[in-house]
User: What shape does this take?
Amino acid sequence: MSKNKRIVSGIQPTGNLHLGNYLGAIRNWVVMQNEMKEGDDCVFFLADLHAITMPQAPDALAENVRNMAATLLASGIDPKQAIFFAQSDVAAHSEMAWLLNCVARIGWLNRMTQFKEKSGKNREGASVGLYTYPVLQAADVMLYQATHVPVGEDQKQHLELARDIATKFNNDYDEKIFNLPEPIIQKTAARVMSLRNGSSKMSKSDPSDLSRINLTDSNDDIAQKIRKAKTDPDPIPENESGLTDRPEAKNLLGIYSALKGVAINNVLQQFAGQGFGQFKPELAELVVSSVGPIRDKLSTFKDDPAEIDRILLAGAEKAAVIAEETLKKAYQVMGLRRRA
Assistant: This one.
């Protein structure tokens, strides 16, 4: 096994990406990619196999995969620096998931809280894939001998499951086939809330387009949405305690903090005493300068779907070489036959 650092992370392909998606995950991928040392690498994939655990229109899913790829490329993911591909282009993900399904225990999966949340009251009507997708997540990272996996609070439980499955597999077959990946807690991931309701996350499903900054919005649209964003009449405080029970104020200041790359207290000190009528133009200018270049590059990539497909397939070829080595070892120790 390689002793070098390998970060593995996937993202489900969804449409209408917004500022919350960018600050919550995409920007962190770019940072991790650019911080890699020689011999280390990043494996980033579009989790389209995970997407089908819920109903998907085939044409929409295919379009979302390309759109997500275009967004990541426009945001700074570089196929020359990172291995970047669509999950379904590497068959080893599905194969490894089945092997791990035969090692994972039902009791472990019963403890997964996200299945309960996503299935809701229709648990009996949920797909088996939705129930077992944490095992596919384990396969995703173990195939590439990941040393580190970026996780948010809602995914920590799934990485713990992956480690449990890897440990059991290694012990069952008395051979260390898999690394036990360590979590990277994404401290720089910003939780961006709705511009109309500071208590709800920014979401593409919100019926009001004014609630979010889309990565495809024009400069004028961005400025208008910031101008109309909900706030309160009180001035900006000097410290964070002054933001208690002021979710909309906290959200706008948090967006500025995240895009500027400075601590929230520094932002508060800079604008303390000002009203949001003075602050919003500053925020709008910062958001425009951050989103505008991504939007322009995104448009270029979307105009060339063949190039997106070429990039994804080239990445899949690189990924498959690594994945095949791990999969072959797993087949062998389990006593299974595998044709070359």
